[in-house]
């Protein structure tokens, strides 16, 4: 799953710490999401999209699983 979190965070002028505080998660969680080591829950993905005033589909790019 790809995403635009780092790009959006920068465009809003948020540090990783500021974003983590706004979302109620640790800075390490933000780092892990940005580095692709952690996939956020649907609830967290919704919070992220809402914070950036976007739809989830505009923040996260879901790729089809290989069959």
Automatic annotation (TrEMBL):
The keyword DNA-binding applies. Keywords: DNA-binding. InterPro entries: Cro/C1-type_HTH (IPR001387), Lambda_DNA-bd_dom_sf (IPR010982). It comes from the Bacteria. Residues 5-59 form the HTH cro/C1-type domain. The keyword Transferase does not apply. It comes from Planococcus wigleyi. CDD domains: HTH_XRE. Pfam families: HTH_3. This is Helix-turn-helix transcriptional regulator.
């Amino acid at each position: 799953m790809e995403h635009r979190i780092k790009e959006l965070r920068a465009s809003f002028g948020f540090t990783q710490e500021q974003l983590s505080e706004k979302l109620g998660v640790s800075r390490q969680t933000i780092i892990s999401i940005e580095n692709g080591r952690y996939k956020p829950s649907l609830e967290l993905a919704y919070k992220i999209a809402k914070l950036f005033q976007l739809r989830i589909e505009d923040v996260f790019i879901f790729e089809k699983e290989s069959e």
